[in-house]
Amino acid sequence: MAEREQLAMEDCSGLHAPSRRQDPETATAAGDAERAIRAMQSRPRLQEAIRAAVSGNIETYRSNGLLNRVINDRGRAVGSLIALYLHFSAWPGGKGGLTIGRFQALCADVKICSPGRARALLMLMRFAGYLAPEPAASDRRQRRLVPTEHLIEVHRRRWKQQFEAMALVMPEGHAALDIHGRPEFLAAFVRHLGASYIAGFRVVDYAPDLARLVESNAGLLVISSLFLAAADGPAAPGGTVVPVSISALSATFSIARAHARKLLADAAAAGLVRRTDRNDAVVVLPRLIRTMSDFYAALFALLAHCADAAAAEIGSVPQSARLGRAQGSASPPPDDPVTWPRRCQTWKPTPLALASRDGESAASG
Fold it and tell me: Mind giving me the DSSP string for 107-146?
C-alpha cells in the first residue's frame, strides 16, 4: 500500500484543459461568468463571506485527516469531483457510470493527471473506503465503482459550508441551503459543477497569482491561514505583519517543514507576502487580500450558477437571479459525460483565458 499511496499522493494536478475555439456559445457563457463575478466582487459583505468560507475549509481539513491525504490539493480534489461526476452521470439501466477506464480517459482529457496516476488515485480512494465496487452490477464486464455514503457526505458538508458563506452575500446561497440535502439536487449539482470544469472553466483563472500555490499540496490552505491571520488583525497600507511558525504549518496541514518553507517562498515570489528579518513572521501584502477576494468571488459565482442550474433541473427553481442562465425543463443525466459539457449550456473559459491558453499552446509548439 505504501508504494501505491506514494504514487497517488504525487502531484497529479498540472495542465489546464486544452485550448478551445471561442465560438459564439463560448463567448456568451464567458460573458455570463464575467458579469456574475463582477457583481459578486461588489457585494458589501464579501470579505465576511470569504472569511467564513476559509475558516470552514480549514476546519473541515482538520476534521477529515484521511480524506485530506486523498484530496488535499487541486488535482486530487478535482479527481474526486470527476469520480462523483461520472457516477451521477450514469443512466438508469446500467449505461455509463464510474469505471477505471472512464475515469482514466476523462482525467487525461482535461489534463488532470496521467492514466497511471488516475488509476492510483482510484485505488487510494478505494483503500480509504470512499469508493466501493458496485453491488449487484447489471453488467459485470463494466466493473463499475460507486462512491460510498461517507465520500458523498463529506462533499455535501463542504458544499453546505460554502452555501452558508454565500448566503451572507447572495440569495442563491439561501436557496441552495434549502435543498442541499436532497439527493437529486446533489446529483444534478455535481453534474453541472463537473460540466463547467470539463468545458474549461477554472476559478484560478480569476486569481492567477494563486496558480502555483493551488497546484501544491496544502498550498491553498497555507495561504488561506495567512489570509485569515491578516484579516483578523489591524489593516495597514503596506501590509499586515502576521506570526508564522513552520512547525505549526507542518503539523496543522500534515506537510513537511521543507514544503511549508517552499510554499512561503512561492507566496513571496508571487508578491502575496514579504519575508521579514524575523523567522517567525511574514508581511501579508494587500495583493493577497485582493487575490483571495477574486478567487472566492469566482468560486461563489460558479457554485451559485451550478446550484441554480441544478435546482432548475430538478424542478425546484429558486426565486433568485439566474446569473444569465436560461431556464429549461428537467433533463436526464447526459448520454455522454465526456462531450456533454461541451454541448450543454454551461460556463466556458473566459475570452482572456482562451487567448492566454492559445498563446501558451503556440509558444510550446
Answer: HHHTTSS-HHHHHHHHHHHHHTTSEEEPTT-S-TTT--EE
358 domain residue, yes or no = no
pLDDT tens digits for 23-77? Answer: 444 445 556 778 888 888 888 899 999 999 999 888 877 766 555 555 555 666 7
Write out the residue range of the structural domain in which residue 215 sits.
209-290
Residue 227 domain-assigned? Answer: yes
Count the Cβ atoms, other than its own, within 10 Å of residue 177: 16
Residue 149 lies in a domain: yes
| Backbone torsions φ then ψ of 135, nearest 5 degrees | -75, 140
Give the orientation angle of helix 183-199 with respect to helix 149-166, to 10 degrees.
Answer: 80
- pTM to 2 decimal places: 0.80
The enclosing domain of 274 has a CATH number of 1.10.10.10
Cβ(283)–Cβ(276) below 8 Å: yes
Q: Which of 266, 204, 296 is nearest to 17 (CA)?
A: 204
Closest C-alpha among 71, 5, 121 to residue 221: 71
In a domain, 330, yes or no: no
Return left, alpha or beta for 154; rule: phi > 0 is left, psi -120 to 50 is alpha, else beta: alpha
Mean model confidence pLDDT for the chain: 77
